Amino acid sequence: STIYVITPTYSRLVQKAELTRISQTFLHVPQLHWILVEDSPDKTALVSEFLAHSGLTYTHLHVPTPRDRKLQEGDPSWLKPRGAEQRNEGLRWLRDSTRARQGEQGVVYFADDDNTYSTQLFEEMRGTQMVSVWPVGLVGGMRYERPVVEGGLVVRFHTGWRPGRPFPIDMAGFAVSLRLVLANPESRFDGNAPMGFLESSFLQGLVTMEELEPKADMCTKVLVWHTRTEKPKMKREDALQKQGLGSDPGVEV
Ligand code: UGA
Ligand code: MN
Predict the structure, then answer these.
(1) 172 C-alpha vs ligand 2 centroid, how far in Å?
(2) ipTM score for this prediction
(3) What kind and span of H or E run contains 84?
(4) How far is the CA of 84 from the CAs of 2, 53, 90, 185, in angstroms?
(5) Around 36, how many Cα atoms within 13 Å sit in the side-chain half-sphere?
(6) Going from the N-terminus, what domains does the chain have, and what CATH number goes with each?
(7) Could you say which ligand is closest to the alpha carbon of residue 81?
(8) 136 lines ligand 1 (CB under 6 A)
């Protein structure tokens, strides 16, 4: 089956580095279709060119996050959910474009552009019937978070923060079958969800905890890490620019 990977992305200094890193992971994965959704009013030249040379099977979409839902410079990163509208746009495209191919076997995974993915993760999720789950490393202020499996079933979640959430799982910790996505045309991410409830807003109504399919050796192996990239400092760049000696803007970074 095809794995449809939906990735929200936005323009910033490290964007091309992030996209290079994950796209070169995806190149090692057979039957992967990348749905890259820019958080912008238009498709950017950087991303268009990047995708054209990526060697991947891809769909390039864009949708800007409405102003009132977008984090502003200086806001703490947890204030508003990120990437919700972009993931919904990816879901819209999937629903529109795969309707014609009723019965297609597929899996949908939401991969942020800054995480670190093992190629093994994709083989774990490929057989997803409804919703599969696995541990995520370096997230939630913990070494890892994971579903706890007893007798082959998920019975609770190992998490340090608000364990009472319907699905206390990071975005990187689950995949959904294309069949389930198509059978629930209304399911989407709530861009107004309170902190930590974005994943639950989508999964609620799709599955119950008992129905979750534990992968990665009954959720004992970490195959994805919630890494976050440091924002590069531009102190020297700014200083040189003031003297008219800044870097060549024609060089894409
Ligand atoms: C955590 C989760 O891992 C995310 O999946 C979840 O969307 C996020 O929290 C949340 O609560 O909204 P975190 O590392 O804090 O992740 O979020 P980012 O990696 O900064 O953003 C998630 C995705 O949205 C990334 O692919 C990023 O490129 C994209 N994004 C971010 C946008 O499209 N627009 C933005 O303005 C910011
Ligand atoms: Mn992130």
Answers:
(1) 9
(2) 0.98
(3) helix 84-98
(4) 23, 27, 10, 16
(5) 28
(6) 2-242 (3.90.550.10)
(7) 1
(8) no
